[in-house]
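User: structure tokens for this one?
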Amino acid sequence: MSDIYDIIQSPLNKTLEDKFIFVMNLPNCLKNLKSKYVKQLSETGIGTNSIAWSLTNVDIPTNSIKAESMPYAGGHHYVSSHTKTPYEPLKIEFKIDNNYANYFTIYEWMNLIYNEKEARYDAENLAGGKSGSNIYATQLAVIGTDEYNKPIIQWSFTHAFPTELQSIKLNYQNTGEITCSCSFVFS
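Assistant:
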């Protein structure tokens, strides 16, 4: 086996930060939901089983296990508590599409979880009066791709739902694409 310092990395073997895709299965409550905000969604509904977006930024949550300090012989020795701290929310930033459909998919999802007009949980529209988080939660994934757009790594998040949709900054003088951030909690 060669020494680690003798290995030369290929110039194509570089990790690029902008090569990530966000994929989610739509929860049943969103399938075929018609949005009053977006013309395209008001006619056809969301209507797909999975949605994939290119991300401009993603914060993969920290994974940590608590350690406890045990006093021993005038000093301290750390041992594992064998407990895990809760994950922070998954935060993503994405480019808003021309029809604002990806933004309003998250907006309508959050509005079903908590109806802003009636200021309550919208169980009637979520699933015909059924309740439970499995109705509005789904599986998400962040997939890293190589320079040829082939998947090389995947982070999966189960039982996820959105908790925050950031504001959109609209500026007539800005020539760039509009971006937005949102956060998901997961189990």
